[in-house]
């Protein structure tokens, strides 16, 4: 028997989450059993610990959309006991039981071998948010972004999980980084991660008045969407790209097509959930080499399985800062 955070739903549709003992026979089908070491918390986890947000199909449910650990047994040739692995996406923790347990049984296709230079705790300090930040940086590079441009790169929602890691990666790679935040008291934290300029959220919050403004940014990782994304499209330098990652500020895009037509701007969609295997391996490899681990460590706050019900509520209320690493043991 081992510990898991199990969410149940009563007859009135009310959910409750508690640390409970379960056995291997309770785990869903899959071809690899992983002894989970660390997980983390994401907005989706907050939903799945609580009311489900339409993501959870069946109860009882074990949330946790990402985890890292050691293979305990495998029916798939690609993995053997003792291998270190990381999992993000594939609707694990939503449709399939996830990482808030000391063991998980999953499909081998969903796993990625942990790269050299990264341990399981660091992998969850990165988590889905950091993995997505790296996918965004890689997409921008694949579209021609290099550190030797005169204009800075822009990161929106910079104090959040995606934004913090994107800022740290760009900083390590030698970019000038402009970090957009609504919490100016985080300015010192963002500078310590690698931001060279802090942009108050209010500067970019207004709805666009003109489709084109001065060419200000060499590229952008946008975690906010909405009016802010619409606005910054008109501020990109000629031929530059914006990686659209999130919707912390809204799902609408009240923009014009003018920046695409007159400045050749690219809008790159970033999805971490169904990302193909080869690009996952590439992203985790880049994380191991291009993310400053000391800066990552400074973002971490530790937690245990029993902290998760409160953390779930906190993340839904926007009260979690930096990266939470959950030691499930
Ligand atoms: P966080 O909640 O940690 O960070 C979001 C940040 O956005 C906040 O810290 C805040 O930064 C800023 N923000 C919040 N509300 C607003 C607002 N109304 N207007 C402008 N800025 C705002 O989330 P994550 O970093 O984990 O995720 C960011 C986004 O990316 C989310 O929408 C998430 O759903 C999405 N996501 C997408 C993935 C994908 O596969 N595409 C994977 C993972 C996440 P500050 O205080 O500095 O202003």
Quick recap of the structure?
The protein has 329 residues and is of the alpha/beta class. The chain is 30% helix and 26% strand. Strand 12 (236-244), helix 7 and strand 13 (266-269) form a beta-alpha-beta unit.
Provide key terms for this protein.
about 325 residues, about 25% strand, Quinone Oxidoreductase, Chain A, domain 1, binds NADPH dihydro-nicotinamide-adenine-dinucleotide phosphate, 7-stranded mixed beta sheet, alpha/beta, Rossmann fold
User: In terms of per-residue confidence, which ranges show pLDDT below 50 for 5 or more consecutive residues?
Assistant: none
**Number of helices, counting only DSSP H or I runs of 4 residues or more:** 10
Strand/helix succession: EEEHEEEEHEHEHEHEHEHEHHEHE
Q: Can you count the beta strands?
A: 15
Radius of gyration: 20 Å
| Main beta sheet | 7 strands, mixed
Give the fraction of residues assigned to helices.
Answer: 25-40%
Overall domain count: 2
CATH class term of the largest domain: Alpha Beta
Share of β-strand residues: 25-35%
Catalogue the ligands. NADPH dihydro-nicotinamide-adenine-dinucleotide phosphate
Distance between the termini: 13 Å
Q: Please, what is the average pLDDT? A: 95
Class from secondary-structure proportions: alpha/beta
In CATH, the topology of the largest domain is named Quinone Oxidoreductase, Chain A, domain 1
Global shape: globular
- The CATH superfamily of the largest domain is known as Medium-chain alcohol dehydrogenases, catalytic domain
CATH architectural label of the largest domain: Alpha-Beta Complex
């Amino acid at each position: 028997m081992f510990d898991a955070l199990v969410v149940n739903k009563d007859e009135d549709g009310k959910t409750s989450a508690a640390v409970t003992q379960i056995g291997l026979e309770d785990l869903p089908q899959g071809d690899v059993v992983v002894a989970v070491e660390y997980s983390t918390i994401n907005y989706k986890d907050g939903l799945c610990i609580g009311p489900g947000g339409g993501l959870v199909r069946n109860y009882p449910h074990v949330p946790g959309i990402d985890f890292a650990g050691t293979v305990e047994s495998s029916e798939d040739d690609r993995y053997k006991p003792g291998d270190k692995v990381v999992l993000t996406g594939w609707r694990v923790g939503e449709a399939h039981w996830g990482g808030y347990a000391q063991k998980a049984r999953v499909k081998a296709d969903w796993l990625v071998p942990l790269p050299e230079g990264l341990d399981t705790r660091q992998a969850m300090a990165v988590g889905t948010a950091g993995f997505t930040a790296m996918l965004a940086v890689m997409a921008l590079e694949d579209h021609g972004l290099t550190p030797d441009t005169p204009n800075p790169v822009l990161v929106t929602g910079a104090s959040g999980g995606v934004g913090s890691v994107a800022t740290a990666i760009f900083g390590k790679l030698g970019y000038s980084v402009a970090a957009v935040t609504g919490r100016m008291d985080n300015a010192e934290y963002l500078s310590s991660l690698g931001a060279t300029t802090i942009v108050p959220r209010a500067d970019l919050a207004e709805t666009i008045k003109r489709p084109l403004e001065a060419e200000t940014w060499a590229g952008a990782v946008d975690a906010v969407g909405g009016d802010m994304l619409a606005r910054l499209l008109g501020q990109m330098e000629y031929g530059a790209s914006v990686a659209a990652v999130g919707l912390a500020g809204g799902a609408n895009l009240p923009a014009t097509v003018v920046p695409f037509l007159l400045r050749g701007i690219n809008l790159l969609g970033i999805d971490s959930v169904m990302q193909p295997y080869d690009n996952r391996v590439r992203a985790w490899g880049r994380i191991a080499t291009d993310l400053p681990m000391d800066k990552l460590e400074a973002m971490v706050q530790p937690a245990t399985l029993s902290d998760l019900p409160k953390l779930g509520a906190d993340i839904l209320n926007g009260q979690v800062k930096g990266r939470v690493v959950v030691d499930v043991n």
